[in-house]
Amino acid sequence: DEGVGTMMPGETPSAPAGTAAAGEPCANCGVLQQNINEYVAALIALKQKMIDGDICAFGNFFFNCTSDFREISALRCQMEKMLQKILPLEKCQEELGSLKAELEEKKVCL
C-alpha cells in the first residue's frame, strides 16, 4: 500500500462512490447555490426596505420642519402684531406718568 493517498503528476483523483461525475454539480452545490440566491434576494429586499424607510423618515422630517416653520412664522406674525399694539400703549403710559407727576406738582403748589 505504498501509493495510497499519493498521486503522480498528471493524475486526477477518482471521485468517491456516491458523488457526481466530473463536470456535474453535486446535490450539495445545488442546495448551496439556492441558499446563496435566497440570501442575496433577502439582502436586496432588506436594502430596499432601508432605502424606503430612509425616504419615509426624510419625508416626515421635511414635513415636520415645514410645519414647524409655518408655526414659527405664525407666532412671529402674532408677536409683531402684539408689539404694534403694545408700543402705543407704552407711549400712553409714559404720557400718563408725566401728566400724573405734573398734577402732583400743581396739587402741592395749591
Automatic annotation (TrEMBL):
Residues 1-22 are annotated as: Disordered. Transmembrane segments: none annotated. It comes from the Eukaryota. Residues 9-22 have a biased composition (Low complexity). PANTHER family: LITTLE ELONGATION COMPLEX SUBUNIT 1 (PTHR11852:SF4), PLATELET-ACTIVATING FACTOR ACETYLHYDROLASE (PTHR11852). This is ICE1 protein.
